[in-house]
Amino acid sequence: MAQAVALQAAVAPASRSSKARPFSSGKALVPLRPARAEARQAIVCAAATAEIKSLGPDRWNDTYYPTGADAANVHKQWYVIDAEGQTLGRVASLAAYYIRGKNLPTYTPSMDMGAYVVIVNAEKVAVTGRKETDKFYFRHTNGRPGGGKMEALRDLRQRLPERILEKCVKGMLPKGRIASPLFNHLKVYKGAAHPHEAQRPIDITSRISKKPAEAL
């Protein structure tokens, strides 16, 4: 009995010491403090930044995003399109292309970077097929249910020819928050005269039949 008690007393300290010192070196594992981890991360980031600076500017991550000053109206160009004898869809697509500013390297979908477009001779725009009689436009007359009216393209051409091009271009513009500012850049006139000579608009009628890449 005495020998069993002595053996148990000799084994117990050894087991306790093995739990306290699990490594062969005898040093307990010390958790890394947050402050020490942050300091080490700062050293690594500083070294990486110094290495990047030594290699020169990072052109791959040097992105450009326009500011409000870049999108101001004082920087916008004016263009004019003569719609006489031109196809309706081609005139509208070219106008929407320049209104959105897709011809510029600073084009950004979420900002108004485009130009002003003046379309003259709206009453002489051409349509293909049987659209003159088979294409209809809906409009509200009195604001009440059932108070709408369907109007053929030839009738709208006689009553308000500017509306034909306005509806066509508006359908090609985005429908978000910049829809109204972009649509205000479109100026459509029935005849050949327009009151925007002071802005010196550039005539881009010859670019109607060209692809967008060639219309720059």
From TrEMBL:
SUPFAM superfamilies: Ribosomal protein L13. GO terms for molecular function: mRNA binding; structural constituent of ribosome. One of its GO terms (cellular component) is mitochondrial large ribosomal subunit. GO terms for biological process: negative regulation of translation; translation. Keywords: Ribonucleoprotein, Ribosomal protein. It holds the Pfam family Ribosomal_L13. Belongs to the universal ribosomal protein uL13 family. HAMAP family: Ribosomal_uL13. This is Uncharacterized protein. It comes from Chlorella ohadii. The lineage of its organism: Eukaryota, Viridiplantae, Chlorophyta, core chlorophytes, Trebouxiophyceae.
